[in-house]
Design brief:
This protein is of the alpha+beta class. It has 8 helices and 27 strands.
Length: 401
């Protein structure tokens, strides 16, 4: 089995088979690009790597924009440096304990799109809000539904989230009021990070997914359900979503996840030609959601209806161009079982069936001071378990006034 000369603790999310990329700053120093291995971050800007000049920056965008060949070259060279003991003396001075550095948002986010690709999530939401009608909208199995979010409010894991305010109108109220959200929620999601751009006016086919998408991260699409419910008709989510979206600090390259690819669940009806993929796949990726340290859900990404490649093809079907740093997310990941639901909206069934935690607390939606952590694991090469690094956020009270 491939091993690194760096000691990697048993159960670490970052074995040498993983090597996720991020941006970090040692104490008193400027931010630069690094890769995680075991309990350390290795400073990529100081290693004899191809395209090394792209890593002396506070963003991965310069490296990601180089494209697939450069990504492969760097991964191969980095793996050699970390597995061949002959390189130990040149690498060791550039290893930093991960708990002694500050982690930053790994990319400059260009655009942000969020999809709605879990059939179980969509069925649950439909059953709650349209009990007398079909749970799925008529277009749901014909195209990956999504909305265009606010790129400037993506924040790195660990950033506090201020409770948003907006208009709310409960069904039994005559008029809306303005105030802090009372139904603040999470959405456990998987994000795909675009590296190589595309040309405006030229759709990207499913077969070109690997030429444009660099890697995968975890994402929490915080949602103010009461604000969202009043505003979303007829144009969809706006202020109920755009106050904050948390992204994990580490991006796992697609190259590390080849062994985690599994066939996409059967799609019926057949999709239109531009969404056809000769080898439709998804990831065997398991998420875990904790609220103040207590596990509330374990959603399986393997059950998602639409594939990452189909989402990309639909995103660009009208000729919309990709830019380096684009982020598109899966939408809430929910499985068929109650304990696999990826939002409190579903777990508490719209607040009507409060969730009972092992600690004795009863939960419907988030309270001030609550901290949510989403983690994820997949199986990589040689059967090694790969982690994604957590995405965490704590709720702060809404500003006064």
């Amino acid at each position: 089995m491939t091993a690194s000369w760096i000691e990697v603790p048993a159960g670490s999310p970052f074995p040498v088979h993983n090597l996720p990329y991020g941006v970090f700053a040692p104490a008193g120093a400027a931010a630069r690009c690094g890769a995680a291995i075991g309990d350390h971050v290795v400073d990529l800007s100081q290693l004899p790597l191809p395209h090394a000049d792209s890593f002396a920056a506070a963003s991965l965008n310069g490296f990601l924009g180089l494209g697939r060949t450069a990504w492969s070259e760097v991964r191969a060279a980095l793996t050699e440096l970390l597995t061949n003991p002959a390189h130990q003396s040149k690498v060791t001075p550039h290893l930093h304990p991960i708990d002694e550095v500050t982690l930053h948002l790994p990319i400059e986010v260009a655009d942000y799109v969020d999809f709605y690709s879990s059939e179980h999530h969509a069925m649950n939401v439909g059953a709650m809000f349209r009990p007398d009608n079909p749970a799925l909208p008529p277009n749901w199995k014909h195209l990956p539904i999504g909305y265009h979010g606010r790129a400037g409010t993506l924040v790195v894991s660990g950033t506090d989230v201020v409770r948003p305010s907006g208009q709310r109108k409960p069904p039994d109220a005559d008029q809306p009021t303005f105030g802090a959200s009372r139904r603040l929620d999470i959405e456990a999601e998987v994000a795909f990070i675009v590296g190589a751009p595309s040309v405006l006016g030229e759709p990207v086919p499913t077969s070109a997914f690997g030429d444009h998408v660099f890697g995968v991260a975890l994402l929490n699409d915080w949602s103010a359900r009461d604000i969202q419910a009043w505003e979303y008709q007829p144009l969809g989510p706006f202020l109920g979503k755009s106050f904050a979206t948390s992204l994990s600090a580490w991006i796992v390259p697609l190259a590390a996840l080849e062994s985690a690819r599994i066939p996409l669940p059967h799609q019926d009806p057949a999709v239109l030609p531009y969404l056809v993929d000769d080898d439709p796949w998804t990831l065997d990726l398991d998420l875990e959601v904790r609220l103040n340290g207590e596990v509330v859900s374990r959603p399986p990404f393997s059950t998602m209806y639409w594939s990452p490649g189909q989402q990309l093809a639909h995103l660009t079907a009208n000729g919309a161009s990709l830019r380096t740093g684009d982020v598109y997310a899966s939408g809430t990941v929910s499985g068929p079982e109650v304990g696999q639901r990826g939002s409190l909206l579903e777990l508490s069934w719209g607040g009507r069936e409060p969730l009972q935690l092992p600690s004795g607390r009863t939960v419907t939606f988030l309270e001030d001071g609550d901290e949510v952590t989403i983690s994820g694991w997949a199986t990589g090469a040689e059967g090694v378990r790969l982690g994604f690094g957590p995405v965490t956020g704590r709720i702060l009270p809404a500003p006064l006034g």
